[in-house]
Target: Copper chaperone
Amino acid sequence: MKILKTSILSSLLLLSATVSAHEYNAGSLTIDHPWSKQVPPSSSVAAAFFDIENHTNKNDELIAASSPIAKTTELHAHIHQDGMMKMREVPAITIPANGKESLKPGGFHIMFFELAEVPKLGETFPLTLTFKHAGEVEVNVKVEKATFTPNSNKQPAMNSEHAHH
Ligand SMILES: [Cu+2]
Model:
């Protein structure tokens, strides 16, 4: 009985891995589909986005990020100020205990300055994330079209078929 249960669980895990394309683990954190919005070849900046799930009873914090593609990598937030959307650097992004934080356009994001190499559509590039408790993890960031919308929330099983087309 125990064996049966395990094999059901592993096929479920396999299924969810197929649906969400690529995800990474740092301790008990899951980083889901890191992606970057395609920028013009002349751009000196780029940004990266992903969801982070915290499967522990303790808050964690993303405290640093770095990538070989850029001279400087910062953690950013978007804020409304004087009726304008502005970005500013933040010292940390909290991932609540048993919760989730999303880095997405218009919200928290990873910002790359002074690009050594402008990432091209369809390519991936490495990004190292440092968490206060979970430590360091390297993920691969996929370059997507500017119109890309990540299927970030786990969809009901019946929707998973659409991902295969
Ligand atoms: Cu920014």
About this structure: The CA atoms of residues 7 and 71 lie 45 Å apart. DSSP finds one helix and eleven strands in the chain. The longest strand covers residues 70-81. The pocket of copper (II) ion is lined by residues 47, 76, 87, 109, 111 (CB under 6 Å).
